[in-house]
Structure to design on (340 residues):
């Protein structure tokens, strides 16, 4: 049976574009396109969609307010498709905390030059959302007395983390439980540019470690977490005693930029047995090949289990490839990391 999708966006151009993109996939049926939340509310009651795509900045009622009302009355998996305005990116991240399952940048500018990439991502996010069995809410709790980390001690091991659908919550729940001086950490989440920067700032206020969006050439120290910027690829390199990151505007890999596989493959090559790999919730197979290569080079690897995953695609693929040492519920992953 086809996935029934309702599009909610005040732009007639975006509604038409999303309808065309989603209708091109035989597994998806667009049941309607609403210009505002009030019309959407009626369509939801009548049509009962499986997935909703939702704009954030709309007249009459903003997307976040609508989402909160929706989750109380009809907890339907919702994908946020938002602009990169300062207001839009902030509210979109709040939407993730309030039950939205994923986030995408709204198509803009010379969109037809990369329509294939955008189309694939939109279809993938909608399909992933349709597999969500339980809507989660969470809160990036701000630390009351966060200490200022002195980032001078080189890290002798590297923690690498990859996540997609459900990733912002999962990464927070792992990183927030690690001490201020844990191993240098690198993270790839499938999020667009602009949103990764704001997410890193929010995570920094919620974790004992220092969290930043990565910049090309950043060294890794104990107590530092670097989040790969959306729209760019990130790699781990080594110079003398120090590990550092390369951040490049390289090609899309396996439909993703940033790609978990490219980071993990560079870790396998340049860090070897001094690495720890964690693959979390997400659709598809990005990261599975890379974490398997890390395991082959002596890294210790962990996959999130099916029960706690929003979507079990990426961890399942990694497990099937034989690249995982331990399969853990999300709430136990940080405990395993602390044992190391």
């Amino acid at each position: 049976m086809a996935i029934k999708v309702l599009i909610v966006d005040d732009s007639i151009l975006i509604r038409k574009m999303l309808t065309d993109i989603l209708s091109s996939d035989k597994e998806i049926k667009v049941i309607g396109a609403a210009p505002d939340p009030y019309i959407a509310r009626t369509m939801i009651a009548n049509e009962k969609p499986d997935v909703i795509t939702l704009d954030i900045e709309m007249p009459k009622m903003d997307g976040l307010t609508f989402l909160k009302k929706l989750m109380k009355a009809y907890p339907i998996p919702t994908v946020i498709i938002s602009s990169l305005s300062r207001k839009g990116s902030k509210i979109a991240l709040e939407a993730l905390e309030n039950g939205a399952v994923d986030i995408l940048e709204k198509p803009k500018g010379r969109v037809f030059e990369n329509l294939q990439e955008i189309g694939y991502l939109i279809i993938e996010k909608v399909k992933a959302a349709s597999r969500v069995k339980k809507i989660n809410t969470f809160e990036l709790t701000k630390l009351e007395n966060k200490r200022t980390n002195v980032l001078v001690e080189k890290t002798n091991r590297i923690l690498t983390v990859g996540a997609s659908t459900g990733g912002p919550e999962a990464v927070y729940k792992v990183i927030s439980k690690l001490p201020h001086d844990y191993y240098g950490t690198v993270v790839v989440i499938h999020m667009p540019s602009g949103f990764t920067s704001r997410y890193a700032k929010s995570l920094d206020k919620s974790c004992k470690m220092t969290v930043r969006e990565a910049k090309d050439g950043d060294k890794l120290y104990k107590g530092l977490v670097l989040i790969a910027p959306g729209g760019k690829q990130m790699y781990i390199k080594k110079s003398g005693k120090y590990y550092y990151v390369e951040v490049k505007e390289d090609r899309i890999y396996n439909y993703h930029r940033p790609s978990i596989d490219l980071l993990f493959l560079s870790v396998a090559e340049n860090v070897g047995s001094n690495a720890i790999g964690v693959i979390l919730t997400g659709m598809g197979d990005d990261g599975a090949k890379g974490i398997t290569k890390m395991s082959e080079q002596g890294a210790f690897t962990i996959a999130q289990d099916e029960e706690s995953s929003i979507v079990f695609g990426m961890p399942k693929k990694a497990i099937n490839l034989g690249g995982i040492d331990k399969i853990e519920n999300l709430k136990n992953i940080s405990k395993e990391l602390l044992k190391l």
About this structure: The mean pLDDT is 92. The chain has two domains: 3-130, 158-339. Residues 115-130 form the longest helix (16 residues). Residues 158-339 form a domain with the Rossmann fold fold (CATH 3.40.50.180).
